[in-house]
C-alpha cells in the first residue's frame, strides 16, 4: 500500500519551501494540486517533474475514489495547495478522510501556514486561540 503526503507550500516566498518538501515532491509517484497552473511555477522552480493532476474543491468529490485506489495499489501521492498547508481552508479533508478510512498512512509535513505568523506578529496573547477560517 502507498502513502499520502500533505505538503505545505510557500505563502508568498519560494525560499520558504523546506528541503524535505522538495525531496518528497520529487519522490512521489504523482502530485495532487489545487491549481495546476500555480503549482507548475513552484514545481518548475525546484525542478520537480513528477506527474501532477488537478484536485480542488470543484472536482475532489469525483477524484477521491480513483486517487485512493491508486494509493491502495502501491503508489505514493503528495497533496499541495496554492499556498500554505492543504486542508487548512483549502481542499484536503475529503482525500485525507478516505485514506484514513482505507487504512492508508497519511503524513503531514511541517511548513508554511498563513495563520501562525499572523497570530505571532499580532501582539495578542497566543497561548490559546481559535481559528475559524480566513475572513
Arithmetic mean pLDDT: 92
Strand arrangement across the biggest beta sheet: 3-2-4-1-5
Q: Please identify the oligomeric state.
A: single chain
Number of strands: 5
Domain module tally:
1
**CATH homologous superfamily annotation:** Tetrapyrrole methylase, N-terminal domain
CATH class: Alpha Beta
List unreliable stretches of 5+ residues. none
N- to C-terminal separation?
A: 39 Å
Structural class: alpha/beta
Mind summarizing the main beta sheet? Answer: 5 strands, parallel
Structure description:
There is one protein chain. This protein is an alpha/beta fold and 135 residues long. It has one domain: Tetrapyrrole methylase, N-terminal domain (Cobalt-precorrin-4 Transmethylase, domain 1), CATH 3.40.1010. Helix content is 36%, strand content 15%. It contains 5 helices and 5 strands, in the order βαβαβαβαβα. The protein has helices at residues 19-27, 36-45, 60-72, 93-101, 115-121; strands spanning 3-6, 30-33, 52-54, 76-80, 105-108. A 5-stranded parallel sheet has the order 3-2-4-1-5, sandwiched between helices. Helix 3 (60-72) runs parallel beside helix 4. The protein is globular and about 50 Å long. The chain starts with a strand and ends in a 14-residue tail after the last helix.
